[in-house]
Write a structure and sequence with these properties.
The complex is a heterodimer of chains A (534) and B (277). Chain A has 534 residues and is of the alpha+beta class. Chain A is 47% helix and 18% strand. In chain A, helix 2 crosses helix 3 and helix 7 runs antiparallel to helix 9. Chain A is globular. Chain B folds into 2 domains: 146 residues, Rossmann fold; 124 residues, Hypothetical Protein Tm841, Chain: A,domain 3 (2-Layer Sandwich). In chain B, the strands form 3 sheets. Chain B has a 6-stranded mixed β-sheet, with helices on both faces. Chain B has a 4-stranded parallel β-sheet with strand order 2-1-6-7, sandwiched between helices. In chain B, strand 6, helix 4 and strand 7 form a beta-alpha-beta unit. Classes of the chains: A alpha+beta (534), B alpha/beta (277).
Chain lengths: 534, 277
């Protein structure tokens, strides 16, 4: 397998995952609107392939390196981060090689899985890790055969992955309860199948998961690409257009530049922060047609904001604060507490490592504390530390209340390390209750839940289900033991009405008169109420 | 009480000087003023603290405060000139109020009395400690030296129940205190070095109090310490009781925050005030 073939394989895996990622999303175990595994893996893979599209490298090592770097920058969610580590392991295994024998390819698959295991603190069997390992083992077994070929090794890896995916419910109770296979593992299976399809458009029958597959489509081409700024695409119609000169000029204005065509018609694609300049420039050459400017930051619902330029006094400790959070009110709360840059994201849209990196680079401090504020963002956040020269501390806040508690504990005259210790303490002290609706029927933590039920999670664990918010919240508060707490802060989400808020508030006050209740407009999606109990 | 000193001790009402100290040491207190609209009240003269905080709670428009006029100081000094050759006049920090400046101007119009005006750089009971220190001295020179030496060592740790009042009074901004507009945070402020510095911000009062005591411990040893409060006597008593256990050799007085300072702290403010060694 050489560079071009590997490139083809990766492009194939991207379009196959693009066609099937919704199916991966549907496998989410938790009946909460969670960071979608399929979308996260797709966006990560897109970022991995981003630079490869434009590379003509002959060596497999160069393509693997691009994929490793790209996936690391674009890694979103836990499965995305693990996927990036798989690419990283693969790239290390093939370092210096221009092409791979079937045996070397199998070894690279195995090494990729090992790298993924090493990247995770407590590897859990029955997840994407197991699937990666089994794919590697199956590949190695196939490579031992005298008739082994690159397609046969990939076919074996894909088959190994499929078998492993089907076994995941027997390894993980939560999967068994929910009646699904592991989503991340299934995503990896699809990636391997996509590789196989593209290296050998043969009679190999691509497996189908019991759930119906959606029709393959051109989704990948329509999705916003990784990065930020504006994805700007258009055609220039003119005469005697010089593609080289246009490319040189466009390259000065952005990245991911693609300028192709003929003297009469040139296609331009660029990611830029200043589309107007690009279009003005193009207009000088001819007629601009089919203009399409996409604001990638809003497409990704991740508007990056930095107050670096707003003339805040610089902090004596030289430590900046970056926080991941979504919801208008919550963004304002975090900003008001002194957070320098907000990475918009969280539960439904996990920000990428790159998004967080950009925010960290945007603050005028060499030392930065990053608050993920969501369990599914923590792993991607941790990847940032190796990518910047700044000293980055991650306080592993798993929820909005933990994030608020951590930020409140930040003191501008205290050193970074002291702040981190205090912020961790405070984050651990606060209890989180999240209230939402089940997105489907399930059984979890011994609870039978019907689609649409109000469900209450205490510290991310599903504890109560019921029919109304007040009932579920009061049960959750009762379980926490209200005598040990004095203050409940209610963050009202986008979907909760004033009436629902008022009745929740009075229900808490009448059941627990000793608790002070403070209400904030959080504006978060999907969670009508998030409560902080301290 | 027979006069033992040849110099008088003057302060202003923001010293929150306990009545008992005032009487024992013969300290003269000049009141600042609180203005509810067009109505003016002299701090602790025309209005009791209880009345004031009741009125503050129900006021639609917050009161303002003002320093005594130079003329009012001149009157006081004129009166003292009959019995004394000199006086030390210890006042609220010039970063907080124009009182010390008014005293200085007022003193210039009085003949026959040497007035040493001291900008205490602080507020509430550290000023009372300075007055007591001065009153225990033999001469104006000795008193001035003793007080001047202690001015940079005065500290006020203030736990406010809300930033609303001090913000309205323009003494501290939310940005300075690192307190956003949304969450109800309890700011812990430190008055020291001619500044009001945010020391901490805590989500709940029950946790803020031990935090305040912890910050105080970091400043030990101290010469004097007191607990002050604005309509929060029970919590003040608890803090004082805790400190007495920890520091059995100290007399720990509980002082009440008066109307003028109370206009800026708001009700339920608590303070740990001390003079560092």
């Amino acid at each position: 397998m050489d560079g071009p073939l590997f490139k083809q394989a990766l492009l194939g895996s991207l379009s196959w995952l693009a066609a099937n990622h919704e199916e991966v999303n549907r496998l989410n175990v938790f009946p909460v609107p969670d960071g979608d595994t399929g979308t996260n893996m797709l966006l990560t893979l897109q970022s991995a392939v981003e630079d490869i599209k434009e590379s003509n490298a002959a060596e497999v090592s160069k393509i693997a390196k691009l994929a490793s770097h790209g996936s690391l920058m674009g890694a979103r969610g836990n499965s995305g981060v693990i996927l990036s580590q798989i690419f990283r392991g693969f790239a290390r295994a093939v370092e210096g090689k221009s092409s791979l024998t079937p045996r070397e390819l199998a070894a690279a698959f195995e090494e990729a899985a090992n790298a993924a295991y090493r990247a995770v603190n407590k590897p859990t069997e029955g997840t994407i890790l197991t699937v990666a390992r089994e794919a590697g083992r199956a590949a190695t077994a196939a490579a031992a055969s005298p008739e082994a070929s690159v397609p046969s090794v990939i076919a074996a890896a894909a088959a190994g992955a499929r078998d492993a995916v089907l076994k995941t419910p027997s390894q993980l109770q939560i999967l068994r309860d929910a009646g699904v296979v592991d989503a991340g593992g299934f995503g990896l299976q699809i990636i391997l199948e996509g590789m196989l399809k593209s290296v050998e458009e043969s009679a190999f029958a691509v497996s189908t998961h019991p759930a119906a597959r959606s029709q393959p489509s051109q989704v990948a081409l329509d999705l916003p690409e990784g990065g930020w700024g504006y994805c700007t695409e258009f055609l220039i119609e003119g005469s005697a257009l010089d593609v080289e000169i246009i490319r040189d000029q466009i390259e000065a204005l952005g990245n991911s530049v693609l300028v192709v065509g003929e003297p009469e018609l040139v296609k331009v694609h660029v990611h830029t922060d200043d589309p107007t300049r690009v279009i003005t420039l193009a207009g000088g050459y001819g007629k601009v047609l089919k203009l399409n400017v996409g604001d990638m930051s809003t497409q990704h619902k991740r508007i990056l904001e930095s107050e670096a330029a707003s003339g805040r006094p610089t902090r004596p400790n030289g430590v900046g604060l970056v926080s991941v959070v979504a919801g208008k009110g919550l963004v304002e709360i975090f900003r008001g507490l002194g957070v320098d840059a907000i990475v918009e994201g969280g539960q439904t849209m996990n920000p990428s490592t790159q998004d967080m990196l950009v925010a960290i680079e945007s603050v005028p401090y060499q030392e930065v504390v990053l608050l993920p504020n969501n369990r599914n963002v923590i792993l991607a956040a941790k990847q940032v530390t190796g990518l910047t020269e700044k000293k980055v501390h991650i306080v592993e806040t798993r929820s909005v209340p933990e994030g608020v508690a951590a930020v409140v504990a930040f003191r501008p005259e205290r050193s970074g390390a002291e702040n981190v210790a205090a912020m961790k303490d405070e984050a651990e002290r606060v209890q989180t209750i999240e209230v939402t609706h089940a997105v489907r029927d399930t059984r979890s933590n011994g609870l039978k839940v019907k689609k649409g039920d109000v469900i209450g999670l205490i510290n991310e664990k599903l504890e109560f289900a019921g029919t109304d918010y007040a009932e579920v919240v009061n049960k959750a508060l009762g379980k926490l033991g209200p005598d040990s707490y004095e203050l409940v802060t209610v963050y009202r989400g986008e979907d909760a009405s004033e009436d629902e808020l008022a009745s929740l508030q009075s229900a808490i006050q009448s059941s627990f008169p000793g608790l002070e209740v403070e209400v904030q407009q959080g504006g978060q999606q999907h969670y009508p109420f998030i409560l902080s109990v301290e | 009480m027979p006069l033992k000193r040849r110099f008088a001790v003057v302060t202003d009402s923001t010293a929150d000087l306990p009545d008992e100290w005032r009487d024992r040491y013969g300290i003269e207190v000049v009141p600042l003023k609180v203005l509810f609209g067009a109505e003016t009240f002299r701090d602790r003269v025309d209005m009791t603290d209880v009345e004031f905080f009741r009125r503050l709670a129900s006021a639609t428009k917050l009161p303002t405060t003002s320093a005594p006029s130079p003329g009012e100081f001149a009157e006081v000094y004129q009166r003292l000139a009959k019995d004394y050759e000199s006086c030390i006049s210890i006042h609220i920090g010039a970063q907080l109020s124009a009182t010390a400046e008014a005293a200085r101007v007022g003193a210039q119009s009085v003949d026959g009395l040497t007035v040493n005006v001291i900008d205490s750089e602080t507020v509430t009971m550290p000023m009372a400690f300075l007055c007591r220190t001065a009153a225990e001295c033999e001469s104006l020179e000795e008193a001035t030296a003793a007080v001047t030496e202690r001015v940079p060592k005065c500290r006020v740790l203030a736990l406010l129940d809300t930033l609303r009042y001090i913000e309205m009074g323009g003494r501290v901004s939310r940005a300075q205190a690192m307190i956003g507009t949304m969450l109800d945070l309890k700011p812990l402020l430190l008055v020291a070095d001619r500044e009001i510095k945010p020391v901490d911000r805590v989500r709940t009062r029950a946790r803020a109090i031990p935090r305040m005591v912890e910050h105080f411990r970091g400043d030990l040893p101290v010469e004097h310490v007191a607990v002050v409060h604005a309509q929060a006597p029970d919590e003040a008593a608890q803090i004082a009781a805790g400190l007495r256990k920890e520091l059995p050799d100290y007399e720990i007085t509980i002082g009440e925050i008066g109307c003028v300072l109370g206009t800026h702290t708001g009700p339920k403010a608590l303070g740990l005030v001390y003079v560092k060694k």
